[in-house]
Amino acid sequence: MSEPRIGAAALRALLGEWEDGRAVYVALAERVRLLIADGRVPARTRLPAERELAAALGRSRTTVAAAYRALRESGHLVSVRGSGSAAALPAAEAAASSVVDFARAMPPAVPGLDAIVRRALDDLPAALAAPGFDLVGDPGLRARIADRYTARGLPTTPEQIVVTLGAQHALGLCARTLVRRGDRVLVEIPTYPYGYEAFGAAGARLVGTPVTRDGWDVGRLRDVLARTAPTAAYLIPDFHNPTGASMPPADRDRVHAAARRAGTTLVVDETTADLDLGRPPGDGPFATRPGVVTVGSLGKSVWGGLRIGWIRADPGLLARVVAARAATDLGTPALEQRIAAAALDELPALLAVRTAELRERRDVLTAALRARFPDWDVPDADGGVGLWVGLDAPAGSVLAAAAQARGLAINAGARFTIDGSCERFLRVPFTAPVPQITRGVGLLAEAWTALRDLTAAPHGSRRAPDVI
Ligand SMILES: Cc1ncc(COP(=O)(O)O)c(C=O)c1O
């Protein structure tokens, strides 16, 4: 396999507005650390030679050499064969647990799941008497997932369901089944990063279409579909991650019709669809329209630790998914499937608990952010996992780095894009328990104050950046 590498121009684009008022080499090293830590520059990626990066950034080679030296010292850069350098995650950092995790929007298990787990494992001997894993999914679980679609207004049979190891796995399987190397795939900007990475890993060339908290620019989306005729389009129409937007039924019809005309398969990610905190009623699942592939999960509504997700699609496509699957995994564990089936039997009650909990956390987060950051644009969210917060400067990555240094893991808005845009945004999840939310907002405020102090400091050798 060829080694991943990033060119100087691509790295410059990812760096964005990286100067933050400190010595230039310090700011450069810190931004590269952030890109490595949040995965925008994956570990083992070869970085450009010092001379090339210096030219691309319009800086001296000495500056870039000093930044690379600092990165080597902190364990973020290692030498590789020949004369190159590759990104690395220091062992301590890879293992380190931050004080507060705002990077993953993953709630702990829904209250009440412990009793369900115990009940589901009552007849453990029967479960242990079988091989305990399978490629397609337990028939009882597939029937329950199908019934849930039917109850939501989309008649579904178990043959239209394959159980996966979470939605992420489902996206990877869809990407590998639908996409051939070099095919175009449309993704939203911003979007769930591991979603676009799943399609990228299958060899797709990604094309983007914008989403804001106000929703989709459907004219633009239809135009991109018509112009680029992508093989697939990856959409999150219900409580879009990260913006929280939901696509109105009329827009769904228009997007669906345009995708049909372009020969594009819509891959609709409903991982966050059950997290409704007070949205006006819609018209049910997107896949009431024909030809749509849906990905679902119990990860947010019940527990991510179950690693139970699924694909709903035509049996013909699912047969190809299953055929492609065994090369990388041999199936979903039976015990988790039993627990998932038992949880689905009680899903309405569990969702009532989950949404009440998320409503409280959302309210605490919204109030805390508005109190601490009166100049930020903190939205009202009617569902999903987090707030897509507008900063009063394009400083998302500098702030994420400063927060990380204080023990708060958080992703800059740019992490959710394929083009380094959205530096004016930060996704702040409301999935953590209230004390962690409060602590996290406090750390964020400390980081923001430190950045302001830095840029307000008398200059001397410092260049006052225009980012804060
Ligand atoms: C939109 C979206 N899709 C997929 C996933 C992955 O979910 P799972 O834990 O089921 O793999 C997430 C998790 O953060 C998500 O937000």
Keywords, please?
alpha/beta; globular; 3 domains; Aspartate Aminotransferase, domain 2; 17 strands; Aspartate Aminotransferase, domain 1; 468 residues; eight-stranded mixed β-sheet; three-stranded antiparallel β-sheet; binds pyridoxal-5'-phosphate
Q: Could you explain the architecture of this structure?
A:
The chain has 468 residues and is of the alpha/beta class. The chain contains 18 helices and 17 strands. It has helices spanning 8-15, 24-37, 50-57, 61-73, 91-95, 113-120, 124-128, 139-151, 166-178, 193-201, 218-228, 249-262, 299-303, 315-325, 334-345, 347-372, 396-405, 434-456, and strands at residues 46-47, 77-79, 85-87, 100-102, 133-134, 161-164, 184-189, 205-212, 215-216, 232-235, 265-269, 293-297, 309-312, 332-333, 386-390, 408-410, 425-429. Strands 6-13-12-11-10-7-8-9 form an 8-stranded mixed sheet, sandwiched between helices. A 3-stranded antiparallel sheet has the order 1-3-2. A two-stranded parallel sheet has the order 4-16. Strand 10 (232-235), helix 12 (249-262) and strand 11 (265-269) form a beta-alpha-beta unit. The two termini are 42 Å apart. Pyridoxal-5'-phosphate binds at residues 105, 166-168, 192, 195, 236, 241, 269, 271-272, 297, 299, 304, 309.
